[in-house]
Design a protein that fits this description.
The chain is 37% helix and 15% strand. It is α/β, with parallel strands linked by helices and 315 residues long. It has one domain: 3-Layer(aba) Sandwich (Rossmann fold), CATH 3.40.50.720. A 7-stranded parallel β-sheet has the order 3-2-1-4-5-6-9, with helices on both faces. The chain has a 3-stranded mixed β-sheet with strand order 7-8-10. The chain starts with a strand and ends with a helix.
Length: 315
């Protein structure tokens, strides 16, 4: 039985990744920042194959902690960077765990004798730190794809900036190690939506769906999204997990980058879908998910399926 280590494996995306690996006969190690907080990962114990699940403590800022977690893994998924919009100290809350954690992770897997495949769960923010807004200077009809030059603005949200810098670390590592024994793939989800596997309330993606459904703006950033009726590129959380699994278990993909994206909708129509109301406008396609569809065999769920499933689950 092969072992998959999933950093961030009890989070919104990570829970589905954990579920997918367990369903496919893997032994799975999931990280826990604080192993005493069992409510954060107890939902994983109910998954099919949970007898092959192990919860392990991990602090990505501590390289020895990373080394202990990675030991014995054949595959490692790195999705353990914080995703939060309300930030008091960007350096401590976002930049240090995201960038330093990525540097530690790369050093450990490069030295590992067991790890053969790695998937980095990056973000659309790694390519456009102004997401969901367009890159300044590009045409409103620009169809974003993996060949675009990444865009960084120091005025962007600290979360997106942290993901940009972490991704730059990954891409430099890959360029420096073209013949590495470890195949490393990066995926870049857009706005990840759909139902959760847990009842945790600390997921930013789940929180945004709740705010959009109930038209609540707890801070200036969310208020801006309503005021400008911002257009969001959407991808279903279950499709993201499927893409990650296939990227990790398909050979010959070292250095590949994949957008994970389907339709783009304005916030007003997202609110309508979340409330089972008819939409007014038609979707656009702004970020291309075609490469992942073609090379990873992903067939994307329509946004209305993601939102109706979220609402049906009690969101």
């Amino acid at each position: 039985m092969k072992t998959a280590g999933i950093i961030g494996g009890s989070g919104y995306i990570g829970s589905y990744v954990t579920k997918t690996f367990l369903e496919n006969g893997f032994s799975v190690k999931v990280s826990a920042t604080d192993i005493k907080k069992k409510k954060k990962y107890s939902h994983l114990k109910a998954l099919a194959g949970a007898e092959n699940l192990e919860i392990c403590p991990l602090d990505t800022r501590d390289i020895e902690s990373v080394r202990s977690f990675v030991d014995g893994c054949d595959i490692v998924i790195h999705g353990g960077t914080p995703f939060q919009l309300d930030v008091q100290d960007p350096v401590k809350e976002l930049f240090e765990p995201t960038i330093k954690g990525t540097e530690n992770f790369l050093k450990v897997v490069h030295e590992s004798s067991s790890v053969k495949n790695v998937v980095i769960i990056a973000s659309v923010g790694s390519f456009n730190t102004d997401y969901p807004m367009p890159v300044p200077g590009r045409s409103p009809d620009h169809f974003y794809n993996e060949s675009d030059e990444p865009y960084l603005s120091e005025e962007s949200h600290p979360y997106a900036q942290a993901k940009y810098y972490a991704d730059q670390v990954v891409q430099k590592f890959i360029a420096k190690n073209p013949d590495s024994d470890v195949e490393m793939v990066s995926v870049y989800p857009v706005g990840v939506m759909g139902p959760a596997l847990s009842e945790r309330v600390d997921s930013t993606s789940m929180g945004l769906q709740y705010l959009f459904k109930h038209k609540i703006a707890p801070n200036p950033f969310v208020q801006m999204l309503f005021d400008t009726d911002t257009e969001f590129a959407i991808v279903d959380v279950r499709d993201v997990a499927g893409a990650i699994y296939r990227a990790a278990t398909t050979g010959g993909l070292h250095g590949k980058q994949y957008y994970l994206s389907n339709e783009s909708w304005k916030v007003s129509d997202i609110t309508r879908m979340l409330n089972n109301e008819p939409v007014i406008e038609k979707p656009r396609f702004v970020y291309s998910g075609k490469k992942a569809g073609r090379e990873l065999g992903i067939s994307y769920k329509a946004a209305h399926v993601s939102f109706s499933d979220y609402a049906a689950a009690g969101g």
